[in-house]
Amino acid sequence: MPPVRFLLPALVAVTWTAAAAAQGAAGGMARIPAGSYVPLYVAAGTPEVRVAAFRLDRYAVTRGEYLAFVRSNPKWRRDSVKAVFAGEGYLADWPAALDAGTPTDRARPATGVSWFAARAYCASTGKRLPTTDEWEYAGRASEHSRDASHDPAFMSRLITLNTAGAAERALPRRGFRNAYGVHGMHGGPWEWTDDFNSVLVSADSREAGGTGRHTDFRAVCASAAIGASDPSNYAAFLRHAFRAALDARSTIGMLGFRCAASA
Amino acid sequence: MRSTDFTLRRSTFALAAAVAFLAGCEVADSDDAGALLAMRVPPAVTGEEVATITAPPNVPPPITRTNATKVVVNLDVIEQKMRLADGVDYTMWTFGGTTPGRFIRVREGDQVELHLKNAANSTMPHNIDLHAVTGPGGGAKATLTIPGAESVISFSAMNPGLYIYHCATSPVPMHIANGMYGLILVEPKGGLPKVDREYYVLQSEFYTKGEYGRPGLAQLDMERGVDENPTYIVFNGSVGALTGDGVLKANVGERVRLFIGNAGPNLTSSFHVIGEIFDNVYGEGGPTISEHNVQTTLIPAGGAAIVEFAVEQPGDYILVDHAIFRAFNKGAIGILTVAGTDNPMVLNSVKTGLAPTPK
Questions:
Q1: Smallest Cβ distance to A238: which of B171, B209, B219?
Q2: Residue numbers in chain A where pLDDT is lower than 70
Q3: Can you spell out the DSSP letters for B172-225?
């Protein structure tokens, strides 16, 4: 079963890794035009957030790409990384410090990478991590619409994509290509954003008379629904809860990243 | 009252605190009957032990200790594909690898040290809100745990009774709908009366895309959840969990105690055992018997009850939610099989109304 199942991804991975090496960045970047969107937690008086034009990696960074980064930046090898920059799960699913596994494995999204490491990777390619607003703005797109956030069928599909098991979500190039040409924003591993831990805090002080009382419960309890712009957007709640639980050292098997750049 | 110092209900306390606040005075610390509102101080504990926690329908043995102690509870969060009905699987998020999760049994006054470990291959952060815990979030905030990590909280089991616990990570309805709940019993100081059998039964709902019984991997249907229209309503996590090889068992003459939880996430249960009358009901999961001779007891979503009865006649006794379409069409059925000698004075077939057997 596995040989058949993985044959195609493996072939894709091999050809595409070679192409990636030539290009320097696999798949390149998609241009995301400026616009605005309504975040899950809106600030009083400013329900829409303006997002400037930016570019976003078409694919999440793969293990193979991350391996190349580690080779040329030995301080990010798992056997030499400083503990303050990465938790125990850093690249823990690799067979060895400079072995990212089979061709299929190398085509999988790179996971078990801390925020520090993801930032360093992006910087090494002249890029940066997307902001949460940028990620959420681009993530509203379905295959055919740049904003499918009011399409119940699409939103329902996101829940299904995002609640698959870990093994399925770690498959190479899972998910769909959206209207911007960005692949796999939903259904693969969760992805780092540059300001993953600031959204909850900054959004909160504008509520509850500025006491910040709800902040602590944004990720937990039914009170997470308080102040949410769309209580039915469960996929967004999942992402917010995940980000809220992280710290910059977190290294989780179901957390990867892609890079962005200003337009 | 079984215990004078811990019979105070937090709701009344909150009310009193509010009244006291409005009146500009402090809450009196008094043992007067009218003042069930005193601030409680968790008692000192001696010793330490690791709790035995059990998968349903089993219940840990009664606590024989006469002192409060420190109890370590180790709970593992595991996400895995499990059977929901014949031919139907569902990716359950679990406390301990089963839905419902492990049954936790502690004693009133115990200091509980709860270790919540989220498996490394989990896709979500998880946490736990124990209704037995006094304090914001019931422990939820302090136990938010990313995959591969462990959180530890310590709490005083101040209020005796039977309580639901559940995951409370946003979006909460989804974590509950995916199977993250269980029961914790805080035994009153003197223990519960001795019985011959104790079982753990928990009712819950599943909301799936596709109709009841559609084969394959069922997916959460959030709209059905919002509409409070479950596809499945089950005891102990799947259709048929308490039938076939899973039936509960007892013998004629034995006393049976059921610890029943209702995790919802939406519906109230009209819990009934066909052919039995509950001799005792500990209403709302409280530590004292509130009612005798009950046919059907209400269990709210996020609530629990304890029922006790003696079994006098052999045969099958059917556990149902007596909102009966739920039992017939959605799965809310279990069986208690009683073995032993026929007791015709209790119930006897005198003349059958069926057609005579052809010769």
A1: B171
A2: 1-26, 198-222
A3: HHHHHHTT-EEEEEEE-TT-PPP-SEEEEEEEEEE-BSS-TT-SEEE-B-HHHH
Rounded to whole angstroms, the Cα distance separating B170 from B168 reads 6
Cα gap B236→B51, rounded to integer Å: 22
Give the tokens for residue B229: 């229209």
Q: What does the block give as tokens for A189?
A: 């591993």
Where does the pLDDT of residue B359 fall: very low under 50, low under 70, confident under 90, or very high at 90 and above? low
CATH architecture for residues A4-262: Alpha-Beta Complex (3.90)
pTM of the full predicted structure? 0.85
**Cβ B141–A217 below 8 Å, yes or no?**
yes
Q: Do B120 and A253 touch (CB under 8 A)?
A: yes
For residue B65, give Cα distances in angstroms to A160, B108, B188, B267. 47, 11, 11, 37
Please report residues of B whose CB lies closer than 8 A to that of A220.
Answer: 127, 129, 137, 140-141, 144, 168-170, 172
Measured distance CA(B87)–CA(B64) in Å, rounded: 43
Calpha distance B62→B113 (Å, rounded): 19
Which residues on B lie below 8 Å from A218 (Cβ)? 170
Pick from A196, A220, A239 the residue to mutate for testing the B interface (most B CBs within 10 Å).
A220
Single out the residue of B312, B305, B302 nearest to residue B347, CA to CA.
B312
In the numeric block, the tokens 């917010």 are attached to A240
The ipTM is 0.81
